[in-house]
Design a protein that fits this description.
With about 170 residues, the protein is of the alpha/beta class. It is about 35% helix and about 30% strand. The radius of gyration is 30 Å and the shape is rod-shaped. The mean pLDDT is about 90.
């Protein structure tokens, strides 16, 4: 048993199943409600296809046009839209609870840069050995990051501890 082939794009020519359609010719003139058979005959005499451009209305709207050219234009529009869209990446910054001021400032410059680019930032606080007993120091650093980024970023997920690390996610405002 083979399945029916997948149809891509709008219905055209003999695939249009409505008895009557609203016809628009190749020059953009509205011919009103016409029988589908008559519209197909008109399309064949001109040498174009009858393409259903708005199938969800009563009666469906069909246009006389070159189907191959129409599909090509639609594909180009979709590709252009895909190029324009921005993907949001999650960048990660790793810190330690007893981070030095200069190291902190360097990491914060990167956080500001990532947020400015429209990316989310995952701030990870790593605890090693005896630092596990002083998780409050890590929370102080996380709050400092939150306060400094309050203007440009919102906290998407508040600091929470998972094993030996504490994570927080910041997103651009």
């Amino acid at each position: 048993m083979t399945s029916a082939p997948v149809r891509d794009g709008p219905r055209a020519n003999d695939m249009i199943d409505a008895r009557e359609i609203r016809l628009i010719d190749h020059e953009g003139n509205n011919h009103g409600v016409v029988a589908t058979v008559d519209a197909l005959r008109a399309a064949q005499t001109i040498g174009l296809d009858l393409v259903e451009v708005s199938p969800n209305v009563k009666p469906p709207v069909c246009k006389l046009m070159d189907l191959g050219k129409y599909k090509y234009e639609e594909q180009k529009k979709a590709n252009a839209a895909r190029k324009r869209q921005k993907t949001v990446d999650v960048k990660e910054i790793k810190m330690r609870p007893n981070i030095d001021d200069h190291d902190y400032e360097t990491k914060m410059k990167k956080v500001v840069e990532f947020i400015g680019d429209g990316d989310k930032v995952k701030v990870t606080m790593r605890f090693r050995g005896r630092e596990m007993a002083h998780q409050d120091l890590g929370m102080v650093v996380m709050r400092r990051v939150q306060e400094e980024m309050a203007e440009t970023a919102k906290v998407e997920s508040h600091p929470r501890t998972e094993g030996r690390q504490m994570t927080m996610v910041l997103a651009p405002r």
